[in-house]
Amino acid sequence: MAARVWLEPGYKCLSDEPVRVRVGGLSPLQPVTMRAGLSDEKGETFGSAAFYRADERGELDLNRSPSLGGHYTGTEPMGLFWSLTPVKPFSRLVKRDVAGSPLRVHIEVFDGHDGDPQERPLASCVNERWFMKEGVTRIPVREGRVRGVLFVPPGDGPFPGIIDMYGSVGGVVEHRASLLASRGFLTLALGYFGYDDLPKDFLNLDLEYFEEAVNLLRHHSKVKGPGVGAIGISKGGDLVLSMATFIPHVIAAVSIGGCNANTLGNLHYKNITLSGVGITLDRAKFCESNLIDISEVTNNPKDEENKDCIIPLEKAEGHFLFVVGEDDKNWNTPLFAQQAVERLKENGKNNYEILTYPESGHLLEPAYFPFCYASFHRLVGLPVIWGGQMKPHSIAQIDLWPRIQQFLRKHLEKQSKL
Fold first, then answer.
1. Calpha distance 131→30 (Å, rounded)
2. How far apart are CA 9 and CA 22, in angstroms?
3. I need a labelling partner for 74 at 20 to 30 A (CA). Which of 2, 153, 170, 348 fits?
């Protein structure tokens, strides 16, 4: 009987969903190498490999069979996916066309351990990992000053409303927003620099722009109001904290790898200005392969000269979720989260939750997204280390993704009209 590999429940799924990889038709106890690979929209290729041994019936079930070596070891049902590694060093997987095409992950089975990928595989299949559930609508937004992309779930609603932002990469990043919409959140992937006619940088940002986006979202006919949520990573992480602090209708904020102070430029709101916390470039560390560790470059927000940069979180009436990768090499996220919590406690506030993940880095993405240890940093102009170890970071993403959704639902679905 010829070997075959198949996926359960099927060959198409959302990119945040697991699949069960199974192989049959092997010889009893046959050693095999499982390989996965994909090419992204920039033409960059990513690959992973793990060594397995078939059972007495000549079968493999990655939900139960342990990897004996390769990119990961142990029983990891989705290890082939989250361990996808760039062939060109320091490339970061990008998915821009979330509506028109999936990530196509090719899965192959080779005889023996460390099977030569130039050989003909014993069996192969393709997993199409989509970013939009059937029925989700993608709508480019160019209304007033607001620029972004709106994702509307199927159905009449009302749905919790979310604003989604990334960091110094700029532009509009859509993959997380489209997945949130696929999970029932009406989500606006918001640009704030480096896109359309928006500013080219974020040296001077106007929080009233973000307030305009909030009002646009909460007045959508399918959004359950009156409050909305916001999620941001890196620079987007401190922006959502400022939004929840100063904009009353932002009642739930998820800050992933964010800072408790305003960073990298001035933030203006009416008659208030938060300056950007300073940096000390001398603290950058050059590591292997000319990578840079910038985790100590951002100054301590509690230093006297930075007191005007700290976000007055205690003024917020909404709720915060701080997400911390303990091995974050972009900046000192554990310290920033600790300072944020201390400030809230000192002011008698308990409107926060904190999730801390050991051996996890800066780029905590939705579940099963491939781990990125290092890539080009737009501001630094060189590849930087993001931190984390592949397996614990990937397991953290699997744990974190539903927790983010639970937090947002808890604070957005049960609100009543004011």
1. 36
2. 11
3. 2
Beta pairing partners, 111: 32
CA 116 – CA 369 distance, rounded (Å): 26
Instruction: Assign 333 to helix, strand or coil.
Output: helix
For 365, residues 6+ apart whose C-beta sits below 8 A from its C-beta are 176, 397
For residues 27 and 65, the answer to whether their CB atoms sit within 8 Å is no
Catalytic positions are 234, 328, 362
Encoded tokens for 335: 């310290």
Contact (Cβ atoms closer than 8 angstroms) between residue 164 and residue 189 = yes
pLDDT of residue 94: 86
Peptide bond into 86 cis (omega under 30): no
**Token pair listed for 179:** 């997945």
- Lookup: tokens for 107: 């899965």
| pLDDT tens by residue, 164-202 | 999 988 999 999 999 999 999 999 999 999 999 999 988
Q: Are 62 and 35 in contact (CB under 8 A)?
A: no
The SS3 call for residue 346 is: helix
Q: Smallest Cα–Cα separation from 19: which of 30, 11, 27, 28? A: 11
Q: Are 274 and 242 contacting, i.e. CB atoms less than 8 angstroms apart?
A: yes
- Which amino acid type is present at position 223? V
- The pLDDT of 29-36, averaged and rounded, is 97
Mean pLDDT for the chain overall: 95
* Residue 276 near residue 263, CB atoms below 8 Å: yes
Residue 247 and residue 207 in contact, taking contact as beta carbons nearer than 8 Å: yes
Q: Express each pLDDT in 297-337 by its tens digit.
A: 999 999 999 989 999 999 999 999 999 999 999 999 999 99
Which uninterrupted H or E stretch holds 342?
helix 333-346
* Beta bridge partners of residue 85, listed in sequence order: 47
DSSP β-ladder status, 123-130 and 12-14: parallel
DSSP string over 42-53: TS-EEEEEEEEE
Amino acid identity for residue 373 in this structure: Y
Distance CA 374, CA 295 (A): 13
Distance, in Å, from the CA atom of 57 to the CA atom of 63, rounded to the nearest integer, reads 16
- Rounded CA-CA distance 83/96 in Å is 21
Contact 173, 180 (CB under 8 A): no
Token duo for residue 357: 């993940």
Looking at residue 65, the DSSP 8-state letter turns out to be P
In DSSP notation, 8-41 reads: ES-SEEETTS--EEEEESPPTT-EEEEEEEEE-T
